[in-house]
Amino acid sequence: MNILVLLKQTFDTEEKIVIHNGQINEEGIEFIVNPYDEYAVEEAVKLKEENGAEVTVITVGPERAEGALRTALAMGADKAILVDPGENEADEYTIASLITAAIKDQSFDLILGGNMSVDSGGGQVAIRVAEALGIPHVSTITKLTIDGDKVTVERDVEGDMEIIEVGLPLLATAQQGLNEPRYPSLPGIMKAKKKPMERLTLEDLALANDERKARTTIVEQYLPAKKQAGRLLSGEIKEQVIELALLLRTEAKVI
Fold first, then answer.
1. Distances (CA, A) of 182 to 40, 42, 77, 115, 185
2. Neighbours of 213 (CB within 10 A)
């Protein structure tokens, strides 16, 4: 079985975000593997250990994104592909186009990715890749079982659970609860340094100029307003309800 994992390098969720001239200042920021993508890597490695498989991880990003791929290799993936998007602005359409172009001539039984990225909150890339490849897609999975060519998945449906049976090849995106990602061991980190990593540029991919251009534009980026101190209401419940309704109307202006 060949398994492909779509990976994104994001800034650490513990980092303080600084906006400078309308752009996120990346100076000094620590970058990590997108947490939802870690679930996808772990599931791929588990399937490899249980059934035998070759696991390939792929990302689109600058040279520093190699760090995220090396982490996945240290977790147990076998090889990696790093696609350089060049100097052009890359949105989810562009990234999905680059990934599709990089893998379209290869055979994968299962493609896994994270349900969303924690930096932009986006969740389109995997879905777009599935659509471009013409294979089924199931999102927010919390359990995956493979029996021959039949796959049974459980998916999170806003607090409820849905069970779906689908055949291979399949693309699925991981939700929290699918597994508990392992920490890379020291031997794993040492082995990861010697595992193969293919590097692709725009010139290596047969993409039309239109497919390289972003379809969306970021108009403005800003930090949310600072939270104000809370306010405690006192008195009888009926009085508190009346005061709350008055405050929501006159101060918060939400009703």
1. 12, 7, 12, 19, 9
2. 14
Element (H, E) at 192: helix 186-192
Instruction: Judge whether 55 and 195 are in contact, CB under 8 Å.
Output: no
Q: Please, are residues 78 and 55 in contact by the beta-carbon 8 Å criterion? A: yes
Cis peptide upstream of residue 169 (ω within 30 degrees of 0): yes
Residue 66, phi then psi, degrees to nearest 5: -60, -30
Q: What is the pTM assigned to this prediction? A: 0.86
Express each pLDDT in 74-127 by its tens digit. Answer: 999 999 999 999 887 889 999 999 999 999 888 899 999 999 999 888 899 999
d(C-alpha 144, C-alpha 148), whole Å: 13
Tell me how many degrees the CA angle 59-65-69 measures, rounded to the nearest 5: 65
155's CB contacts (< 8 A; 6+ apart) are: 138, 139, 140, 141, 142, 161, 162, 163, 164, 175
pLDDT per residue as tens digits for the range 158-214: 878 999 999 999 999 999 999 999 999 999 999 999 999 999 999 899 888 888 888
